[in-house]
Amino acid sequence: MILVLGAGVAGLAAAETLRRAGREFLVLEKEDAPGGWCRSSLVGGYRFDMSGHFLHTADPVLRTELQALPGLGWSKVTRRARVFLEGRLTPFPFQVNLHGHDAALVGRCLKDFAAERIREALSGSAPPANLAEWFERRFGAAMCRAFFSPYNRKMWRRPLSSMTYEWTDWSVPVPTFDEVLAGARGEGRRDGGYNATFLYPRRGGIGALPAAMAVPLSGRVRTRAEALSIDLRHKTVTTSAGDTIPFSALISTIPLPELARRSRGGAASIGEAGRRLSWIKVLALNVGVRHPGRFDGHWHYVPGGDFPFFRVGCLSNVSPRVAPKGCASYFAEKSFRAGSRLDVEKETGAMLDGLARLGAIGSRSVVEAVSPVVLDPGYVVFDRARQEAVPRLRSAFARRGVFTAGRYGAWDYFGMEKSIADGRRAAKEAASFRG
């Protein structure tokens, strides 16, 4: 029996891979429905996701498979993202859309970006020491002061000099000087980055995806069954329902620090390494509004400290079916350090005020639905401790037939596509394990 911990998209992908291989398996999920952070809910006629989740896939085979899932129709959406900076909305990515900003700021950005390219040409490109240095070397000091530094400090809740930058390889587009110059002239590209186009379900919110993935697994997904203890020596899992379930191999998509904390019978270094991992939690506030104000595009990045959220979006601009006619479904995200106290009611009020000041909630607007969700963990923090601890943990678990997968299982910065692929990879490793 191969056990799968967690029925998010990574766990469901792993389970489907095992099903197709004819292997015996069982998925344990602590919530009352599969989906993980990709679940959706219906509140007062508004369809809310847990946060802003959009499927961007570069793999044509995976795209074809997901589009063929029964009962699940997709819309292909061209991203309309904005940066709200100093009271002005400009297209994303900021680095190739400088046009319209103060002329002095644009001049400084061009000058500093060019200086970094000259430095790179003359001195070569030695590895940056940390994330702060990575941003400055890629974009120059002026762009960092204007956008990259305040936005990322606001999101990550720590000095950027304490972080590493391996997650930027695929997620932060670095332009050429010609592209930056074209953006300063008003000819900037709006299709930069990994999510220039994405897929979103026509009905049911993003939760329609894991719901469709779970259909072929009927009877093999046990909900309300949290894995409280994993005995690595005797290869058993004890659940919140009081069951003790044996396994030949195990696939874990639960947060890696939790897996380390709940594991017994392994090396003491497992618990020690797990305690070194850091993350931020996110308050995702979903708001349904009748007679909404103005919101241009799908989501905005908000670096300014006068707004509580770092990102805010309008889900009904992505899919009109998530809100009643004439209404809007918004989401806003604010981050917090792990372990910090969170006054959800107070934060909700501040975020609603921020939506009003942004213009998304107008003077005639009626707020009809409010649904706060705490994602804990929300984002994995990349630092030196992670670089050392994650390979050690994954290797120690793999030797015992435990394979980690997905954003939180692998403790990485995965989107849904990578999480699905990682779940499949873990299933193949678990199926071939001989311990």
Describe the structure.
The protein is 36% helix and 24% strand. With 435 residues, the protein is α/β, with parallel strands linked by helices. The strands form five sheets. Strands 7-6-16-17-18-15-19 form a seven-stranded mixed β-sheet. A five-stranded parallel β-sheet has the order 9-2-1-13-20. A four-stranded mixed β-sheet has the order 12-11-10-14. Helix 1 crosses helix 15 and helix 9 runs antiparallel to helix 10. The model has no long low-confidence stretch (mean pLDDT 95).
Any low-confidence stretches, pLDDT <50, length ≥5? none
**Structure class:** alpha/beta
Largest sheet: 7 strands, mixed
Number of helices: 15
Please report which band the strand proportion falls in: under 5%, 5-15%, 15-25%, 25-35%, 35-45% or over 45%.
15-25%
Quick one: how many beta strands? Answer: 20
